[in-house]
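FAQ: What does the model actually see?

It sees only this:
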Amino acid sequence: MSDMNDSSININLLKESVLKRLCETLDKANNKGWRKLGEIVKNDKRFKMSMDDMDMCSLKVLEVDGSPSRVMLKHMGDQGCVLGDLMGFLQIMGHTDALQCLKPSGIQILVHPQSVAVSAGHNLRLSCCAVGSSHVHFQWFRKTEEVHHSCSPDLVFSPVQLKDAGFYICRVNCGNSCEFSHWAQVDVLDVPPRYGLVSLPSEGRPRVLIQPQAQRLLVGDSLFLECGAVGRPLPQYQWYRNGMPIKKATKRKYNVQCLTAEHQGRYRCEICCNDERTWSNEVDVIIDDFLINDQYYSLEKPYATDKVALLMGNLTYRNHPQLKAPMVDVYDLTNLLRQLNFKVVSLLDLTESEMRNAVEEFLSLLHKGVYGLLYYAGHGYENFGHSFMVPVDAPNPYHSSNCLCVQSILKLMQEKETGLNVFLLDMCRKRNFHDDVMPNVMLKVTANIVFGYATCQDAEAFELSSSGFTNGVFIKFLKGRLLEDEKITVLLDRVAEDMGQFDPTKGKQALEIRSSLSERRSLADSIHPGEYSHPGHDLLWIKAHELPESKVLDYDCGVQIKMDFAAEFSNVLVIYTSIVNKPEEMLSCQAHITNLPPELDVDPKLMNKETVEATGSFLLSGSLPQHCLYTRLGSIQKLRDELAFTVSLQVQFKSLDDMVEWNMDVNIGKPLTAKLDLNRPARKNSCQQTCLMPHSPSTSPSHSPACDRRFHSPSLCSPQHAASPYLNVCEPQFGAVGGHGYNLGVPMHGDHTYMCENVQSSPLTAQSIPIETTDDMEDMQNDFMSSLQFYNRPC
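And it is asked to produce this:
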């Protein structure tokens, strides 16, 4: 906004309302109009005003709403004409009316109302602050109509309703002069009841409340997509189809009147608010050719009624070697699957009961036609064709009773009549000789199962030894392919080929694929909710990913602390605080989080750090604001009650030598997966329990099985153990492998930890078959196992 008291301002920077009044005055005048002004300017050597320029101005009278004066003034401003020059020209002309247009009004608007998007039912305030040479008066308008009883600087909606949406402006009067504020748009969202009253997010951070919906339409139908976010200032929208921006699709509602086959594709909307950007869900719009008996007909590929993924990464083991890669692997896979519209639950470091409860919650999200994906990274083993995932609290040695059987989970998924069951197991598949119990899991014969094993049977999966955080070998190559719209078995086969070209693991680790998939189902398939869909499934997932609202803490000393939250995983919360107001009499102040619940077991040395990396959270680096203090809370699922803590403010006043401290208690409820109470006792008898058949006692030594994500090389072992059937696992070696600069870590189990090599599994005897198994059940099981297509790559 220009200052009318500043005669040195370029006339192109004058307020639009001033220029409009001035141009109307000059356009209407005859002897003292724009032509006269042009003749005077022409005689001033500082500016050029040729006959061609005058002719160009005169042509504007032929246009609707064309203004010759506007063109002339812009031409003058482009040459450096300032307000003082223009007023001098008008004084020479004796044009008092034009000079009156440039006279300062004596009103200065300090704060203009700001456009905003808000949910219905929320309280809203639009503000205009102005000063004048005498007392100022305010009047609010909605478009051209006065808003009744709105003669104060604030226009308050308590609460705001759908009918209040529109454009607002405030007129400020001072004596005989008036000024208008900027226009402010109020966008009111009609959100579903499940959101309740949604408060405005902090400035610049839009929050999406209305998501576009997938649709199946016919050629010639109309398409309507809607996206809505609350935010201040008003969020800006841009619609995309198949990853490309759609021209002129910059409103939150997108319409196409007459659809053609070209309109089919994947749609999503980009929402921007200041420098913050977020995205809506991506949805599929399918255009069919015809409809017969209420059935759509096209050659469209299969689709899912929903897509749900459970990702578990165990790395901080209590009794076994710790790992690094699962954290990075789960994080990268989470971001990729979300781009494919999966509902993702990502969890780190789960105990046995927590893993069982997490799987139970995962199963509750499944129903008919859903694509279910389970990814696990951590220690594991395979006995009798059954895979076992090892919790972080597993004893040393561990048995099947301490672990989760993957095939048992598959059986429960089959009962949900899912459309696709995908298991990505990033773990070792060595035999566990401490566990001589044969599982008895009877699976149905279904043509929708895919297993992607990170390594071959009786082999190990690798981590790349590194000073930082890197992916495991499997995810290193999977993440480059996962977004491809290919049949999942084709995609995994390409990953296997990529892994086969990786020198550090060539001949040591190879991807193995087992599948009974008969249709061309892809992880990128579209979602079309079916009759079995239930809103409760979405609510359960939403509940597990709710972050606490931002908080502003007001201390009695005048300091204001802002507290925000971010989720690194579904059970890892990052709290970051910043000082937004510090009185001048203070030299410095710091706010530290203290008194966290003991079950979270947070190292005080990693709290209240100046960088998020210093807390151990390397994956959020660059995505959080700077100049904050960060605290990372892992294992949120262990919370027994609401998350309550103390924010201790320490202030150094200029006039005092000693620090002064204020404390404030904060309660943010149960964030993220803490709401699911995963730490409750697991119901082993009802969920994921494998039917077991006892065998003869194990005769192997009393040591932990070497079933870790590691590389074992006999050449690295001590020669004194060469004659033993159990080879000692030696200290880590960090030499480069394969000439590519990669190192394969060799984690140490302990001084008496061994690894069994080249042990052949003993054939199953009659005693191995559970007594309740009938010939028909055995035949059905054999038929199912035969139906699995076995893709084997040499280990």
